[in-house]
Design goal:
Layout lengths: L2 E6 L4 H23 L17 E5 L11 H14 L12 E3 L7 E6 L2 H4 L6 E10 L2 E10 L1 E4 L2 E4 L2 H15 L15 E3 L6 H43 L2
Parallel strand pairs: 1-9, 2-3, 2-4, 4-6
Antiparallel strand pairs: 1-5, 5-6, 7-8
Helix pairs in contact: 2-4
Length: 241
């Protein structure tokens, strides 16, 4: 079985919000009683029979729009789960990043899952475990670096990549999907950042310099205006009294 995550286009957020409110109105009473006994979905309770769990992050064969900052997001996602994650694991995972494709978990990126892997529209990543008995033998995680909004390409920012990575690693640790929109294992994610990490890494220093230069110009103009105002008032007081 393949477990994936769908990214929601920001343009659809208002429609989704209205639909969700209508859903609450229509199903509020039965939803409350059902939620009281809700148990998080799991693939396996303790899928790995050893520790540490080795992880191979393929940052060599990468797509055109891959950003080197994505590797850091994987590291942060691993740390997130080592520190307890969303609290639904019955064990504490320990990871070891290795430079070998024989690792327990293999992570790679593609340009777009829909066009390259044939995934349904909107799927941003998936985890595919190989299971033997009640244990994982290995897990392949595939993440896309962006998606299309109509005909326009949209690069995923670092915060979106971090959320996708946390979600798919959760599957690799045995967790299924959650019914809570605030849970990292909820099967949909609203994209919240528009910053292209490739442009940021290339021109971040220049943008920061431009920002501080602009700030300095604004401060200079402000000080000059105050000085001119005081000087004019002094002249007015001197000649028109």
């Amino acid at each position: 079985m393949i477990w994936g995550l769908i990214c929601i286009n920001q343009n659809n957020v208002h429609l989704i919000t209205l639909s969700f409110i209508l859903f609450l109105v229509l199903f509020f009473i039965p939803a409350v009683s059902a939620a009281s006994g809700e148990v998080p979905e799991k693939i396996l309770d303790n899928p790995w029979d050893h520790s540490p769990i080795t992880v191979y992050i393929n940052n060599k064969s990468v797509p055109l729009h891959y950003s080197p900052t994505y590797y850091e997001q994987i590291e942060k996602a691993l740390e997130y789960w080592e520190n307890g994650g969303n609290g639904d694991l019955d064990y504490t995972p320990v990871f070891e990043i290795v430079d070998s494709e024989e690792a327990d978990i293999r992570i790679r990126w593609v340009e777009n899952l829909e066009s390259i892997e044939g995934a349904p529209s909107g799927v941003a990543g998936y985890a595919k475990p190989e299971i033997s008995g009640n244990r994982f033998v290995e897990v392949d995680i595939v993440l896309e670096v962006g998606n299309y909004q109509g005909k326009a390409w949209r690069q995923y920012g670092d915060s979106t990549m971090l959320s996708i990575s946390k979600h798919e690693l959760g599957h690799a640790l045995g967790l299924g999907h959650s019914n809570s929109p605030r849970d990292i294992m909820y099967p949909e994610h609203e994209m919240g950042d528009n910053v292209n990490p490739i442009l940021l890494s290339k021109y971040g220093g220049l943008l920061r310099a431009a920002f501080f230069l602009g700030l300095a110009v604004i401060l200079f103009l402000g000080v000059s205006w105050q000085y001119s105002r005081r000087k004019r008032k002094k002249l007015e007081d001197e000649y028109f009294k």
